[in-house]
From TrEMBL:
Highest taxon above the source species: Eukaryota
Chain ranges of the ERAP1-like C-terminal domain: 583-905
Location of the protein in the cell: Cell membrane
Membrane disposition: Lipid-anchor; GPI-anchor
A cellular component annotation (GO) from this entry: plasma membrane
Keyword annotations: Aminopeptidase, Cell membrane, Disulfide bond, Glycoprotein, Hydrolase, Membrane, Metal-binding, Metalloprotease, Protease, Zinc
Cofactor needs: Zn(2+)
Domain Aminopeptidase N-like N-terminal: 63-248
Protein's recorded name: Aminopeptidase
A Pfam family of this chain: Peptidase_M1
EC number: 3.4.11.-
Gene Ontology molecular functions: metalloaminopeptidase activity; peptide binding; zinc ion binding
Length: 929
């Protein structure tokens, strides 16, 4: 009936996607090269695609210091002009007759290049190189090695509207339109804001002055030094000289924000719209503790004298780690802990911790070039979980790491189309594709190193010396491997006679990851292990790539061991060897970035022992047995659902979130296939046989509490997955509890104050969903009213799902009419999502399909992407369904392409049903009796 992967999980999934792109989202519009401005003054510089391999600036002069003045005018009638001046001190390293730096999308109003005594040099020609965004001053004399020079440039441009460089953000406050200006530079947009040497390895110090009106506040990386009156009644804010920084970590902002600040234990500020600032108090309280924890763990003091956290109403990135002035899309920093649920509480902690971890990994120690983006993002994605523990020491955050980072990356990196973590970046177009796995695989490989160098102090010593050695400088992978190696020397850490560099190079420079298969010989007691590249597509060609794999394994008698598997296969030895009835498992605590398969008998032993006592196994392994086994059925490495379904039996006594959410993620597809069949009740009965012992201990009231302190927030995740999964299996007890709370909410509801807190934010989405599902048409009507009245975005989303998941056909028909009508209460931005929800509702699916067939042209007119509309029927799984779908396609041959993906998905479902359905029915029948 309902998707197990319910609203809360979807939101978390969305967060994952956003985190994946946390620092980058937009690629600006690029314009064609214009060289006609050559020698003209003023010169208008345009950006262009960086498409050639000659990407780097020449190194004959390098910058040491920037003096920057920016004067933005926030006046729409004037076009939001920005005037600026930059004086760059450079040192000559090689004799040359030009200076070359980056600048684009601006007008150079004036220029002069001086020697150390202030005498202007003759500029004989000014050249712009559009593809590289170079600005080249050809000189009438030769620059002398060892001498210093000043490049002094005045420039102007209208503030940008595309959320990179120095750009405008607008928002409404008390009905008035307001503006702010802020910068986003990673990876190569600083050059759109001031002429500069815009490469991460060209670090320099900055003195910044920003012009502003009265009642506005300017920010940059460093603290304010003084404010001076300007000629025209405005003010100039002058800031302290910065630490050495890469251009992409520089940030400027000019706002009319309100602020919350603290000086203990170090200066922190949260800055936001006045209407939203009170929701900044929570992270103002937590952020200093996160920073302290990161400092302690990585044994490095944060050198920035202050840390401002800026909450932007809109942002080109989820968040960006500008040093000392971190910018966030505001929902990643602000939270109303009385009105928002625990996932939001977790999220703001995680994103803030990620950005503060970048202070060490990215800001203090910076990648040499963008091909090594994983060194920034892998460490920040790992450090995020380290730092979060500071203010929340009881949170078992590593469960979320496995679910939100490790498992999805194993999935993404199993495609034939994946790529090595490190690849050449010859142009910025080569950079963006690296980001898909840089976060999760980078963090997972670090986690693997931690797992092998298991004595934590060793690894943290190595990382601390890696930071210390390159502070205010730049790094390559070898710097990390060398420092970790030095930390290991003289200890008893077993690297199998290899160096960390030798081991890790294959993991960062080869695509994909290994499948390790352990096969036992139950006659001799022998254990063979093999490796091959894991590819999720059963049709994929075999790939001969090998890795140096740390095969950690555990047997009840022999305990935990490590074996280095460098060849295609090897032999595990342990004393005593496991007996015939004893299990073995590989990849202890899932610290290795690989999957593990076993012979069927060992799988049986694992399933039996898990059911007898899951606590014999680490939480991560309980989850990974499930994740691997379900994945292996799809990839063809296991012949049937026998193994994964047998493994699910232990869930009856599983008290932790991670194994449950892993099971729910995989069982969701089975449920989607079963829900339209007459065996739906059989599937649900089995699922409830696992859930009911857990549900009995986690009644709804637990979600209904308003926690002052969350304790271990993973307990809330656990409660939620149990409640939502149980209700999704149509448990009458669960639906009834939700209905009672829905009626309580309804009776206390005040339409004049629709967002008055009545229900705990932790329970709301489930109460709406199952309260309406278990209610009648009047409850649906009431929910529809609330959808229209509430000012809460999350309430609107939760209610939309609830409305579309109801069973009454009259209400669903009305919803369909409203989805198609631009003047109905369904907002334009919600209409497509509502239709997709209806397609996922087995009670609404056929209605929705018939409605689409009867109103095809109207749907085409309302939704630009008609393929997204057709995707509502991707769960069709019978030949009759397929016939109906292809008949609709054939009625609209001009739109045939819009059906392709959904038709392919439906064919896949039909093949799955042919292959697995009867087997699963038999298995479920046998298990329930
Ligand atoms: Zn990041």
């Amino acid at each position: 009936m309902f998707s197990v992967r319910n609203d809360m999980l979807r939101r978390r999934e969305l967060v994952f996607l956003l985190l994946c792109q946390a620092c980058f989202a937009l690629w600006p519009d690029v314009e064609r090269l214009r060289t006609s401005a050559r020698k003209a003054r003023p010169m208008r510089l345009r950006s262009d695609r960086q498409g050639t391999s000659d990407l780097f600036l020449p190194r004959h002069v390098i910058p040491t210091h920037y003096d920057i003045l920016l004067r933005p005018v926030f006046d729409e009638a004037l076009g939001f002009p920005v005037q600026g001046r930059v004086v760059i001190d450079v040192e000559c390293r090689e004799a040359a007759t030009n200076t070359t730096l980056h600048a684009a999308d601006m007008t150079i109003e004036d220029y002069v290049i001086r020697d150390a005594s202030g005498i202007p040099l003759e500029v004989v020609d000014v050249e712009t190189d559009g593809p590289h965004q170079f600005l080249i001053f050809h000189l009438g004399e030769t620059l002398e090695v060892g001498s210093t020079y000043e490049i002094d440039l005045a420039f102007s441009y209208p503030i940008r509207r595309d959320r990179v460089g120095f750009h405008l953000v607008s928002y409404t406050e008390s009905g008035m339109e307001k503006y702010l200006g802020v910068t986003l530079f990673q990876p190569s947009f600083a050059r759109l804001t001031f002429p500069c040497f815009d490469e991460p390895s060209l670090k320099a110090r900055y003195d910044v002055t920003i012009g502003r009106d009265e009642d506005w506040t300017a920010f940059t990386n460093m603290p304010l030094k003084e404010t001076l009156p300007d000629d025209d009644g405005t003010f100039l804010d002058v800031f302290e000289t910065s630490l050495p920084m890469s251009t992409y970590t520089v940030c400027f902002a000019v706002t009319q924000f309100s602020s919350l600040t603290t000086d203990t234990p170090s200066p922190f500020g949260v800055h936001a719209r006045p209407d939203a600032i009170e929701n900044g108090a929570f992270m103002l309280q937590n952020a200093p503790s996160i920073q302290l924890t990161l400092e302690e763990v990585f044994k490095t003091e944060e050198p920035m004298p202050k840390m401002d956290l800026l909450a932007l109403p809109q942002s080109g990135a989820g968040a960006m780690e500008h040093w000392g002035l971190v910018t966030f899309r505001e929902d990643f920093l602000l939270v109303d802990v009385d009105a928002e649920d625990f996932t939001r509480v977790f999220e703001v902690n995680a994103v803030t911790s990620h950005e503060l971890a970048h202070n060490f990994f990215g800001n203090l120690v910076t990648l040499q070039w963008w091909d090594l983006i994983w060194l920034n993002e892998g460490f920040a994605s790992f450090g995020e979980y380290v730092g979060m523990r500071g203010p929340n020491p009881d949170w078992d955050v590593w469960q979320i790491f496995v679910w939100d980072s490790y498992q999805p990356t194993l999935m993404d990196d199993s495609l034939e189309s994946t790529h090595p973590l490190v690849m050449d970046v010859f142009s910025m177009n080569d950079f963006w594709p690296l980001l898909d796995i840089a976060y999760g695989k980078g963090a997972s490989l670090l986690n693997m190193i931690f797992g092998v160098l298991s004595e934590e102090f060793i690894i943290f010593d190595g990382i601390a010396s890696y930071i210390g050695e390159s502070s205010f400088g730049n790094v390559v992978e070898e710097d990390l491997w060398r420092n970790l190696q030095a930390a290991v020397e003289g200890t008893d850490v077993d690297l199998g006679g290899r160096t960390i560099a030798e081991i890790m190079t294959g993991w960062t420079r080869q695509a994909g990851y290994p499948l390790v298969t352990a096969i036992r010989d139950y006659d001799t007691g022998g254990i063979r292990v093999q490796q091959e590249r894991f590819l999720s597509d059963p049709e994929a060609d075999p790939d001969p790539t090998l890795w140096i794999v740390p095969v950690t394994f555990y047997t009840p008698e022999g305990g935990q061991r490590l074996y280095w598997l460098a060849e295609g296969d090897g032999t595990l030895t342990t004393q005593p060897m496991p007996g015939l009835e004893e299990f073995l498992f590989v990849n202890v605590e899932a610290s290795g970035f690989y999957r593990v398969n076993y012979d069927l008998r060992n799988w049986e032993l694992l399933a039996t022992e898990l059911e007898r006592d899951p606590n014999q196994f680490p939480i991560q392994n309980r989850a990974e047995f499930l994740d691997d086994a379900f994945t292996f059925v799809a990839s063809g490495h296991l012949p049937s659902y026998e193994v994964p379904l047998s493994l699910t039996r232990f869930l009856r006594s599983e008290p932790k979130f991670l194994p449950w959410v892993t099971a729910a993620t995989h069982l969701e597809y089975l449920h989607r296939m079963f829900v339209s069949t007459e065996r739906r009740a059989l599937f649900q009965a089995y699922a409830l046989s696992l859930l009911e012992p857990r549900f009995a201990e986690t009644p709804f009231e637990m979600l209904e509490q308003f926690p002052e302190v969350y304790g271990d927030i993973l307990d809330w995740y656990y409660n939620y997955i149990i409640q939502s999964f149980t209700c999704a299996m149509e448990s009458s007890a669960c639906v009834q509890q939700a209905s009672e709370l829905f009626q309580l909410w309804k009776s206390a509801y005040d339409p004049q104050d629709p967002d008055r807190t009545i229900l705990s934010p932790n329970a709301k989405s489930l109460v709406y969903l199952y309260g309406i599902y278990g209610g009648d048409d009047s409850d649906w009507e009431f929910g529809y009213q609330h959808y229209q009245l509430t000012g809460s975005e999350s309430d609107k989303n939760s209610m939309l799902l609830a409305l579309a998941s109801y069973t009454g056909s009259a209400s669903l028909t009305r919803l369909l009419d409203d989805i198609l009508s631009p003047t109905s209460p369904i907002r334009d931005q919600d209409a497509l999502q509502a239709f997709l929800y209806l397609g996922a509702n087995i009670a609404g699916r056929q209605l929705a399909f018939d409605f689409l067939r009867d109103n095809w042209d109207a749907f085409k007119a309302r939704f630009q992407e008609v393929s997204a509309v057709v995707a509502a029927f991707q769960d069709f799984n019978t030949p009759a369904d397929l016939d109906a779908l292809t008949a609709l396609r054939d009625e609209h041959p001009q739109d045939a392409d819009a059906f392709a993906a959904t038709v392919a998905a439906v064919r896949g479902n039909i093949a799955w049903m042919d292959q697995h359905f009867d087997f699963i029915v038999d298995w479920l029948n046998a298990s329930i009796q």
